[in-house]
Amino acid sequence: MALPPSAPPPVRSRSTFPWWLLAAALIGLLVLWAVVVDHDYRRIFTALTSGIATTFYVTLMAFSLASLLGIIVAMMRTSANAFLVQVATFYTEIIRGVPILVLLFYIAFVGAPFIVDSVNWLISPLTAPGWIGKMSIRSFDFTWRAIIALMIAYSAFLAEVFRAGIEAVDSGQIEAARALGLSRWHTFRHIIAPQAMRTILPPYGNDFVSMIKDSALVSALGVQDITQLGKVYSASTFKFFETYNIVAFLYLIMTISLSLAVRWLEHYLKRSSHY
């Protein structure tokens, strides 16, 4: 009996070629050429690149803290304790329902003074004799107010990502681990976490890219990130077109490169799961 012919290798059609990436690369090259040959673009680029460090600092600090808080909230939502589930659900639903900009203003101008007043009340036995001074609202840096606001905002979204990853693990494996005498911590560490990472990593990376874009909101508090430096420079020189071209270019470089890395990681995890 003759064997059926093997299927031909898949041909990469023109429709699947990443033309969008080629177009984006060409636009990026045009902007870089303008930076090289045009004096105004070069000055703007030099002035704005100093804000990249602030953008990454705010993003990394806020995302790291949001991840930690998100894991805690996700563990509460998947807990067997009904009270913890209700508290965690209340937190995620309320925080996700508030716009990030509103939350940023609320933390900066309501939450920060409340924290300062609470700290001064706690240390009042030490401030009354003059042993230490009271905490001033001016000592609460606006950068950290922005970091706390982004942490709270994104922790609710990341909690749902972590919860989905945890619940994607087959419950039979968890029951088998508990039957073998593993504690909740060892079950999470050796059974749940390794499998949940496959589900969590792609949306987790996408949320990191989203936070880089949303970090531009901290310019509303005067934090010297890329967007704030662009606002100041364009207002003083009236070169709005050139300035915001550079602002958009810098954000696109960061977000597109990270999005491609996340996409590659997602394809890698899909391939490795078949072996």
Give the topology.
Layout: H1 19-37, H2 39-77, H3 82-96, H4 100-122, H5 124-127, H6 142-167, H7 171-179, H8 184-214, H9 226-237, H10 240-273
Helix pairs in contact: 1-2, 2-3, 2-6, 2-9, 2-10, 3-6, 4-6, 6-8, 7-8, 8-10, 9-10
Structure description:
The two termini are 31 Å apart. The protein has one domain (50-265): Orthogonal Bundle (MetI-like fold). The chain has 10 helices and no strands. The chain is 77% helix and 0% strand. The chain has helices at 19-37, 39-77, 82-96, 100-122, 124-127, 142-167, 171-179, 184-214, 226-237, 240-273. The longest helix has 39 residues, at 39-77. It has 275 residues and is an all-alpha fold.
**Low-confidence runs:** none
What structural class is derived from the secondary structure elements?
Answer: mainly alpha
Q: CATH first level: which class?
A: Mainly Alpha
Shape: flat
Quote the beta fraction: under 5%
Average of pLDDT = 85
Give the total of beta strands.
Answer: 0
CATH topology: MetI-like fold
The overall number of domains is 1
Radius of gyration: 25 Å
Number of helices: 10
For this structure, what is the CATH homologous superfamily? MetI-like
CATH architectural grouping? Orthogonal Bundle
